[in-house]
Amino acid sequence: MRLHVGCELTFEFPQETPLIAILNVHHSRVADLIGVETFTTSPAIQASGYHDQFGNWCNRIVAPAGAFSLSTNAVVNDSGGPDPVVLNAVQHPVQNLPDDTLVYLMGSRYCETDLLSDNAWKLFEHSPPGWQRVQAVCDYVHHYIHFGYEFSNPTRTAYGAFGEGRGVCRDYTHLAVALCRCLNIPTRYCTGYITDIGLPPPYAEMDFCAWMEVFLGGQWHAFDPRNNAPRIGRIKVAHGRDAADVPLTNIFGPNVLTKFKVWADEAAHTLA
Amino acid sequence: MRLHVGCELTFEFPQETPLIAILNVHHSRVADLIGVETFTTSPAIQASGYHDQFGNWCNRIVAPAGAFSLSTNAVVNDSGGPDPVVLNAVQHPVQNLPDDTLVYLMGSRYCETDLLSDNAWKLFEHSPPGWQRVQAVCDYVHHYIHFGYEFSNPTRTAYGAFGEGRGVCRDYTHLAVALCRCLNIPTRYCTGYITDIGLPPPYAEMDFCAWMEVFLGGQWHAFDPRNNAPRIGRIKVAHGRDAADVPLTNIFGPNVLTKFKVWADEAAHTLA
Amino acid sequence: MRLHVGCELTFEFPQETPLIAILNVHHSRVADLIGVETFTTSPAIQASGYHDQFGNWCNRIVAPAGAFSLSTNAVVNDSGGPDPVVLNAVQHPVQNLPDDTLVYLMGSRYCETDLLSDNAWKLFEHSPPGWQRVQAVCDYVHHYIHFGYEFSNPTRTAYGAFGEGRGVCRDYTHLAVALCRCLNIPTRYCTGYITDIGLPPPYAEMDFCAWMEVFLGGQWHAFDPRNNAPRIGRIKVAHGRDAADVPLTNIFGPNVLTKFKVWADEAAHTLA
Amino acid sequence: MRLHVGCELTFEFPQETPLIAILNVHHSRVADLIGVETFTTSPAIQASGYHDQFGNWCNRIVAPAGAFSLSTNAVVNDSGGPDPVVLNAVQHPVQNLPDDTLVYLMGSRYCETDLLSDNAWKLFEHSPPGWQRVQAVCDYVHHYIHFGYEFSNPTRTAYGAFGEGRGVCRDYTHLAVALCRCLNIPTRYCTGYITDIGLPPPYAEMDFCAWMEVFLGGQWHAFDPRNNAPRIGRIKVAHGRDAADVPLTNIFGPNVLTKFKVWADEAAHTLA
């Protein structure tokens, strides 16, 4: 299956403004790209790119004053199958975890493992370790948080989501990430695209989504506590410790977002 | 049964210091007093008293510089029976609550009803209203909080106790108070004495205790989410919205507490 | 000068819903009323009233399902002069404060005196006690908080306003109230009307306002850290410890506010 | 000048427990080592080491049940001079910062840049950019926080330190780190040794210290908002975004710390 994914963001800047955009498909999917993924700006500006410490591709730009748009487009080969379920993926004792997974056991800006540890163990110590324990966390968070766009709050943390019991996909993910880390399961926060393929209508307006990856059985697996069901067409853009590491754009100055559009669908539907 | 209750607090003050002490048995138990309840200071200082807006007896004192002790002693008639259980005490619709109970539905310093409301309804909307619902809250809080004196934190709120899942009797009570208020049950925070009568040894050192009273079936009933079992010999000193209203002492200046002793036992055991 | 003040609030209720409205002019201004203050509902419902523990007049209503409006209208005699300035109003030592002012030294839901005390003393210990110290607090808060309606957050506390440095009139007032209490000055939170009389255009849409009263020189004085300048035509509706005590309406069920209108002007301009 | 630095930590573990220790001198000082830096455990256990994403040397160990000690010892060549002061170190515009410094502009567990940004700009926008601005932040924090070991709180963040105005060296550093990042100056949190050389007695018991490094004029410079004066003998052990990245030990299980000893002095004084 070929997926067409992309986005367009338009800002109004009162002055020349440096920014970092993390909008390209994650390098782990680069081999799946059909043709070139475009990253364009209007007016056209030269971007310089680098990989951050998590391997995300970051575009550095100095946007001119006035209206400024960023846009990406990519066609990506995808299995067409739902998120894999690997029920027998084992949980590694901490001493056996690869060195580079250990950072994903630590507390971070929006995932206060120090504050939530007691609750994590009380809630999940009797669930079977491994895949079942992560699924138990997802089931819990999925039912625990009262979803509502009106509850969106960019400074809410996992602790806040737990305390208030409400939020959006970002809050579901932060809470599940924090709980898994408390349980000594390396867990990272992901952003990217999810298609509506296979879902019944009506469809909400497309947006970037948040989910998480956990390290079990020697590899990373996607879990999505917001949707909590395998989905078709999940294309990662970035991962990190939490939302602080993977903003779509990190803008160093005042700005107004005037347009925000995201698309993710079967390529046949959208490209000639 | 006659109970002997009292306390002694000694402070070191670097300078003359005004303070308010809420240490006398609550006026609702004054008819049960045998003889006079003493309130003494050393050195002897004249205290002036008043009832605060919750009906608590407050002693105002200007303590001299140096070592200063406050002490109370009372002998109180008590039923000798355990805390009453009134399973059929009904929950009143808000519109039928007496005016003077409504203040105990509001948020307060340590009971953030605005933050905990979603969770309160999610947890308890299916429990039967009235006594059973309050008992469900107490059962929940009793098992939810991980008790430990090392978790004592004088600025922890109900929201903090919920988020961290640990605390002392004050935290149990704040969380249960906040949840009951979210459920539209007037609830107030109480401090006072509880004896060890009827309990097996070993006994911890005596301390003041926190519990709560809820308004059901036209009257106030004691619930104790920390102990969560009827107790013998519960003597209230003060009630209010939360711990901010009923400090043992409210001291307006620097000080060091050098001695703190509480007693509550059958009078025959302790008085000639 | 005669002022015409009033408001109209319209809600949509999915079901019969009990509520408490604190919308009438405060009893301390009742002697200034010209004619009767109206409190009407549409559809017409019988309200029962009571004074809460702060002396505010509270209307209890059970609103029917559907659209429901509350409206008040009053004509009030006013000095026509600006808020009095009493530079020599002294600060009372705590031991000399009247008993009924002491509650306004305590922490409350949105005024965490326990958390802000160190900062209060560090900031203001060198300011002259009394009127000058309160004015120093108001000057500080007035310049400290970055005003913006987009920063409005109904769960922000004084501590949050201090930490984030942004907010609306409610946040200015909570922060100033908390700081004054830390400094042992009894301070209460007020809501009510302020006219635009004497101000240059343009005029913002009318709203209820928040300010505070402090106890100095044996009486209560209005201070307004948001505007921080004497104003003409200030009519108090309610006071309490903080915003948790004086909601315009305390509604016990889901609801949508569909209309909100406030007026406060010279009576000649608005009434025949 | 030769410095002798090291530490000894003893724990009691109820069961076999994995842990990560970050106790060795930072790799940037390895060339200054005289002889070998020892890292010993008692009982002797094989450790495996790795560099984390910040370049810190991490020892992974599975400690046996019972008493367990970790100890390091190193002799390090040091300039013997105080922390360098480079008044003309310039602040780079964001667009000119090296890619690998950008992570040190982001929010992190204990440094909530999103919450403190308004205050950072209000406080420091008029200070000269570069070294002077960082010094202004340090001067501010140094005077702002009320130091006291009794205020130590392992879950306090920069926002909490700002709100409460009290803390220990960790809190000074977190607040200064967060403020500098808000001002677009890459800033990292450091832990390590500081000697008492050049200070008058009396000397407090040795402990690990926290300070920060900022990126100005193309390189990293140490600033120490707690001491706020150049010091002699500063040996870095680790750096990261904040204290969450550089715990002395990250222990995955219950434990009790029974001994904690740190030394840092001129080698001649302590070694034969």
Report on the architecture of this protein.
The structure is a homotetramer of 272-residue chains. Chain A has 272 residues and is of the alpha+beta class. Chain A has 2 domains: 2-79 and 248-270, Immunoglobulin-like; 94-244, C8orf32 fold. Chain A is 19% helix and 33% strand. The first copy, chain A, contains 5 helices and 14 strands. In chain A, the strands form 4 sheets. Chain A has a 4-stranded antiparallel β-sheet with strand order 3-6-1-14. Chain A has a 4-stranded antiparallel β-sheet with strand order 4-5-2-13, with no helix packed on it. In chain A, strand 4 and strand 5 (57-63) form a beta hairpin. The model of chain A has no long low-confidence stretch (mean pLDDT 95). Chains in contact: A-B, A-D, B-C, C-D. Chains A and D meet through strand 5 of A and strand 5 of D. Chains A, B, C, D: This is Transglutaminase. Chains A, B, C, D: It comes from Phyllobacterium zundukense. Chains A, B, C, D: InterPro entries: Papain-like_cys_pep_sf (IPR038765), Transglutaminase-like (IPR002931). Chains A, B, C, D: Residues 161-227 form the Transglutaminase-like domain.
